[in-house]
Design goal:
The protein has helices spanning 79-93, 100-109, 116-129, 136-143, 146-149, and strands spanning 5-14, 24-32, 35-36, 41-45, 54-57, 73-76. The longest helix is centred in the middle third of the chain and has 15 residues, at 79-93. It is of the alpha+beta class.
């Protein structure tokens, strides 16, 4: 494909801290129109969660060409399960979570029109599968900003 992107030098390392059941992190050096980029592309691949994917049809996206015979669909994670995974990660690492992105993702996902029953089911399944206990008290402890209360 002649799109100006070139990927090379793939480095794979085990994900020991990030998931309760492991996985691999791939760091890929890349170039755009011949210019090397300073940040590597990071791709995490892990398995172990029980997810009921949903089929999403992408054929009608405005960025895709208008073709009557053009069909593009994929099985994707439902927003409810992505939320459940992010929430469980917050519980697992607590205030030791160095990824602010997880909190931003959680907030961002609240703007989706998630189904309450599916969300509760996803949270229960994710926490059970990852041997984590959910409690509102623990969530309050994690989200409470102790530093600000001392100023």
């Amino acid at each position: 494909m002649e799109d100006g992107f070139e990927f090379n030098e793939i480095i794979s390392t085990p994900m020991e801290r990030e998931t309760p059941y492991g996985g691999d992190r791939f760091q890929i050096k890349w170039k755009m129109f011949g210019k090397s980029q300073s940040e590597t592309l990071k791709l995490d691949v892990c398995a172990g969660d029980v997810v009921t994917s949903i089929k999403k049809d992408f054929s009608k996206l405005s960025i895709l060409p208008d073709c009557d015979d053009f069909n593009l669909s994929a099985n994707i994670y439902p927003a409810e399960f992505i939320f459940a995974e992010k929430l469980e990660t917050l519980f697992r690492f607590g205030t030791g979570n160095t990824r602010c992105k997880d909190l931003i993702d959680l907030w961002s996902l609240t703007t989706f029109n998630m189904d309450d029953a599916k969300l509760q089911k996803a949270v229960k399944a994710c926490f059970l599968n990852r041997s984590q206990v959910f409690s509102l008290k623990r969530l309050e402890e994690i989200l409470h900003d102790d530093f600000l209360s001392r100023i």
